[in-house]
Design brief:
Blueprint (H helix, E strand, L loop, with lengths): L6 E6 L3 H10 L5 E7 L12 E4 L4 H11 L4 E4 L6 H14 L3 E4 L11 E5 L2 H7 L6 E5 L15 E6 L11 E5 L6 H10 L4 E5 L8 H8 L3 E5 L10 E2 L2 H12 L1
Parallel strand pairs: 1-2, 1-4, 2-3, 4-5, 5-12, 6-11, 7-8, 7-10, 8-9, 10-11
Helix pairs in contact: 1-7, 2-3, 5-6
């Protein structure tokens, strides 16, 4: 008796949650999992199973890929700030009538006494900095540094996985590193570089949260960029286990 063919699942990945989901699904013979990475990091951490790297060519290109590869379910487990690919995924899934889930880890929440300044964009963060301090720890990634390039009085400590390209702030030191980071290491970094302000995105990752705890302990102001909302009408899971449950229920 012939068994049913494995159902094809496409995970839009690049996050810890995406890798954990791929690992959780890898042992299921009823599923065939492909993880898609954008290719913006030179040496990405690869998930288990089949991997494709590179863009799709917009929503139309993604819809075409879904059709050609007979995808049965799509899970958007990209970074919370990857709103362009999330929008493309919503449009492509609707066009091809493929069920779509967004896997989004919860955002950070300020604690008692935290000095958070919530803003909606990098540009808004840049406008606040002259009033907050002159030595800035910038952990928003290498792609948006041009937004801060006009700030000539501030000194920036920039941490990113890959080296940034100009335009960048004229007074800047770069640390090439990726999490997880320890509380002790983050506290020492703030002390050694005499940091006065932390700027970060609300990525919500546990691996990078210690910088917020260290900033709170040092009574530093934090400029935190709010994450964009997931596309309307798309169900959201908070953990890989929730996503796996949704997938198996949807494909049952």
């Amino acid at each position: 008796m012939n068994s049913a063919p494995a159902r094809h699942v496409l995970i839009l990945g690049g996050t810890t949650e995406a890798r954990r989901l791929a690992e959780e699904l890898a042992g299921d013979p009823a599923l065939r999992v492909t993880s898609s990475l954008a290719g913006r990091v030179a040496a990405p951490r690869l998930p288990v199973g089949q991997v494709r790297i590179g863009g799709f060519g917009g929503a139309e290109g993604m819809a075409r890929w879904l059709r050609e590869h007979q995808v049965d379910a799509l899970i958007d487990a990209t970074h919370p700030f990857a709103d362009t690919i999330s929008s493309h995924a919503a449009r492509a899934a609707a066009d091809v009538h493929v069920p779509l889930l967004a896997l989004r880890r919860p955002g950070w929440v300020p604690g008692p006494g935290d000095r958070w300044h919530s803003v909606g964009s990098l540009a808004e963060a840049a406008r606040l900095l002259p009033d907050l301090g002159e030595r800035i720890f910038l952990t928003t990634g290498r792609m948006g540094l041009a937004t801060f390039a006009h700030l000539t009085r501030q000194w920036f400590l920039v941490r990113s996985v890959d080296a940034p390209e100009p335009p960048v702030p004229p007074r800047m030191e770069v640390i090439l590193d990726r999490g997880p980071f320890t509380l002790e290491g983050e506290a020492e970094l703030l002390r050694r570089h005499r940091i006065e302000v932390l700027v970060t995105k609300d990525s919500g990752a546990h691996a990078t949260a210690p910088k917020l705890t260290a900033a709170s302990a040092a009574a530093l102001p934090v400029v935190i960029i709010r994450r964009p909302p997931a596309p309307q009408g798309i169900p959201v899971a908070k953990t890989p286990s929730e996503a796996a449950t949704w997938l198996r229920t949807t494909l049952a």
